[in-house]
Amino acid sequence: MGFCMGVRRAVQIMEGEATPDTPVFSVGEIVHNPHVVSRLGTSGVHQLPGPDELEGDIGKATAERVSKGRVAITAHGVGERVVRELESSGLEVIDTTCPIVTRAQRYGQKFVREGWHLLILGDPGHKEVRGILGWTYDAHGKSHATIVQSPELADLKRLIEEFPGGFPNKVGLMAQTTHKVEDFAKFVGNLMLLQRDHNFEFHVVNTLCHATTGQQEAAARLAKDVDVMVVVGGKKSANTRHLREVAEEQGCRAYHIEAPDELQKDWFNGVERIGLTAGASTPDSSIDEVETRLRELLAA
Ligand code: SF4
Q1: Is-contact 283 250, C-beta < 8 A?
Q2: Residue 259's CATH number
Q3: Which residues, including other chains, have CB under 8 Å from residue 186's CB and lie 6 or more apart?
Q4: Is the pTM of this model over 0.85?
Q5: pLDDT means per 10 residues in the chain (300 residues)?
Q6: Which atom of ligand 1 lies nearest, measured to the CA of 212?
Q7: Residues 128, 162, 258, 291: which is the catalytic one?
Q8: Which numbered atom of ligand 1 lies nearest the CA of 75?
Q9: In this structure, are strands 201-204 and 145-148 parallel, antiparallel, or unpaired?
Q10: Helix crossing, 34-42 with 284-299: angle to 10°?
Q11: Which of 174, 204, 234 is the last residue of a domain?
């Protein structure tokens, strides 16, 4: 549980590069965790608005805010246009995109170049998904990808029926890296069922992150064994929310908290065993603080 390889790596790179004279400015939120963001500020790593918060050329807008130091692309990655604009701003750019996210971006780019339409199972509001989408534009500025939010048969049927210009017959399938493997399998299986009477080619790429699927499997095993699960992580963190869902799917009551002061003693009345897990953007220190507070509450 806790920091995954990608987030750990991004934080280490930024902290390693930052000095008091040459701070590092992340373009957008480094991780979905306000405690980590505030701690990094003391190491010379500061946060700037990300591509979704700025209008126009992000390179120019960022250069206007940064007089010295370097800018960093965060673990969730950004689209191709954002990379180009940052690079042409004259600022030095450090890319800490998680290698698993980079792989998904490269596949997105490859699909479009080879004439496939890409369907991405994911949350359209998530930074990583918007970043992948940013690699699916052709030379005329047209994206050849669609973000699909639901893997359910009825929703996919509607998607196929209402697809502008007719549903393509060469389709690449991938998922947001933190998606549940069951949902991705359902997505692929349901599309096969719906298109069984048509000529089509599907190219499925497993873009799921093994760190996340491992975490989900461990959370599911733990949830079977306890009465209540406490899941620690930022409220905006998709993988932390999934961990809570995974625990609930096992019939376990689960609470998603960001900080120890959110714990309530009455959640644990009559409870014998409590499970504790944390999302991929949760630092070890936050997990330790929650555990300590939990033990204090139970001892009181
Ligand atoms: S959850 Fe996986 S894909 Fe996302 S940053 Fe962490 S290691 Fe990379």
Answers
A1: no
A2: 3.40.1010.20
A3: 151, 152
A4: no
A5: 86 89 88 77 89 84 82 94 92 94 96 96 94 95 96 97 94 93 95 93 94 87 97 88 94 96 95 94 89 93
A6: 1
A7: 128
A8: 5
A9: unpaired
A10: 120
A11: 204
